[in-house]
Amino acid sequence: MPAASFALPGKRGRLVFSSSEDPIRVTPVLTRASSLVSMLVSSVSGVAESLFATLFPSDCRLCGFPLVNISRLPVCRPCLSDVRSITDGVCSVCGERVFSPYALSTGETRCGFCRRLEPPFVKAVAYGSYDDGLRELIHLLKYQQVRPAAVVLGRMLAEAVRRLEPGWNEHSVLVVPVPLHARKLRQRGFNQSELIAHHALKLGAGSGRLVLHSRVLERRRETQSQIGLTRHQRRENLRGSFAVTRPEVIAGREILLVDDGFTTGTTVSECARVLRRADASKVFVATVARRLKIEAKGLDLAQTFAEDEPTLAATG
Ligand SMILES: [Zn+2]
Ligand SMILES: [Zn+2]
Q1: Pure H helices in the chain
Q2: For residue 67, which ligand has an atom nearest its CA?
């Protein structure tokens, strides 16, 4: 069967597809051989790494290119450095992308939704946009059990948390990961938000002011998929799902709620509401990724994605 050869846009390496088989990579053989040669002459550790790559060949789980370094995370450096942080052009309260900035007298930018309604959290920040590499990194951790991904995601979370620090009044802030339902926790073996928060703290997130407390909030009810629901329906869908189990720990405290992703914000808003009802003084939100509005040519998608419309692929 004749095979077609083409380069994937934005990806390194070349793939050959045939109609009956999985994609066959052709250049890596050359790449591995040439990188082996250059590494052999460079250093003793280079020899060990190349030998490892030759004996235990592994490909980057994001772009498919062969890895040349020994790493517990099967993702190449270019893929990791492609994941960029977002800081500009977002709402100062919820972190949503703002296309026509509405500056308050304080110089803050707010999205339409946060101008109309006060969310139950003081401020939500995210490291990056919930697409491409970042989404795949999160999926590696959540669905493929690649736990070393939590270290990289923890570093990103730590960077996002830095933007919240000026708002903290208390010396010590309680970190509460968004909980999983017990059945899902058993199935997955870990709560990804807790794992990411754990690594962020290990990397010094919050300048030593953060204390992780994973057992103060629980998910009592498993919820149906949020896909295709309106904001109101999503809120109804989650109502009663979360409960504070240790109100004495929460009362009067500033809380940093942590989750892997922020898609519609319904999950973190519901958790924040429950925490505030248990007398938390303030709730801040930090996530690794955030789904952002897209701007398209000739079409105001900011309008299409208006806050009260159903959101596609909404999971949290
Ligand atoms: Zn890669
Ligand atoms: Zn906003």
Answers
A1: 27-42, 44-55, 77-82, 112-116, 132-144, 149-162, 182-188, 192-202, 231-238, 247-250, 266-277, 301-304
A2: 1
Give per-residue burial for 83-107: e unless 16+ CB within 10 Å, then b: beebeeebbbbbbbbbeeeeeeeee
pLDDT tens by residue, 220-244: 988 777 778 888 888 888 888 999 9
DSSP for 242-296, written as a single string: EEES-HHHHTT-EEEEEEEEESSSHHHHHHHHHHHHTT-SEEEEEEEEE-----B
Q: Which residue has the higher pLDDT, 104 or 208?
A: 208
CA of 13 to the centre of ligand 1 (A): 10
CA 312 / ligand 2 centre spacing (Å): 19
Q: What is the pTM of this model?
A: 0.77
